[in-house]
């Protein structure tokens, strides 16, 4: 059965399986619709309140976030300029002042509108 299912669009794993109308990847946990065409993978990334994010936007962090592997914390209200959208679990690449380069999840940021 896995021979006829497409590979995972996130990690390209061949071990996908189907549950009802969803295809699921056991390696990365990605879920997607079996009916969606492969061309429609260009997903829209939204912030915590539903604003559409684009490369170069400025966002603020809405929750204190612990930095893995260190004792640092990204404080609520930290402004991050010039984000870059990427595919994956952490869908924002950015440089945070005082911490450096890291990935953020869009659910923990809010777009700054000037």
Automatic annotation (TrEMBL):
Transmembrane segments: none annotated. SUPFAM superfamilies: Prokaryotic SH3-related domain, Zinc beta-ribbon. Residues 45-112 form the Protein YjdM C-terminal domain. Residues 4-33 form the Protein YjdM N-terminal domain. Pfam families: YjdM, Zn_Ribbon_YjdM. It comes from the Bacteria. InterPro entries: YjdM, YjdM_C, YjdM_N. Belongs to the YjdM family. This is Alkylphosphonate utilization protein.
